[in-house]
């Protein structure tokens, strides 16, 4: 992996994480968390779209869209797991 590839991953992860953070209510991320969620979301989205046989096109736009969808899924899972029921 080259330094250019790493910079692109971080940039796409950051963009995807920030958009996903904006889309999912009740979760607020910092910049580093958004980058991590975006990168993990890109991996999840790429795997999920591959398993389902869905193609959103090539290029940076398709990559960011897949990463955002994966990051939104991750944040929704985190939000649902993070809730604890109130007990009296």
Concise structural overview:
The protein is mainly alpha-helical and about 90 residues long. It has one domain. About 75% of the residues lie in helices and about 0% in strands.
Number of discrete helical segments: 3
Can you count the beta strands? Answer: 0
Helix content: over 70%
- The averaged pLDDT comes out at 85
Structural class: mainly alpha
Strand content: under 5%
Low-confidence stretches: none
Total domain units: 1
Q: How is this structure best described in words?
A:
With 88 residues, this protein is mainly α. The chain has one domain. The chain has three helices and no strands. α1 (3-23) packs across α2. The longest helix is centred in the last third of the chain and has 23 residues, at 60-82. It is globular, with a radius of gyration of 14 Å. The relative contact order is 0.19.
Give keywords.
single chain, 88 residues, mainly alpha, 3 helices
List the helices and strands and how they pair.
Elements: H1 3-23, H2 31-52, H3 60-82
Helix pairs in contact: 1-2, 1-3, 2-3
């Amino acid at each position: 992996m080259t330094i250019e590839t790493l910079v692109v991953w971080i940039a796409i992860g950051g963009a995807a994480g920030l958009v996903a953070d904006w889309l999912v209510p009740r979760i607020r991320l910092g910049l580093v968390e958004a980058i991590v969620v975006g990168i993990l979301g890109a991996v999840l989205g790429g795997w999920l779209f591959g398993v389902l046989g869905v193609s959103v096109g090539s290029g940076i736009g398709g990559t960011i869209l897949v990463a955002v969808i994966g990051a939104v899924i991750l944040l929704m899972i985190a939000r649902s797991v993070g809730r604890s029921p109130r007990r009296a």
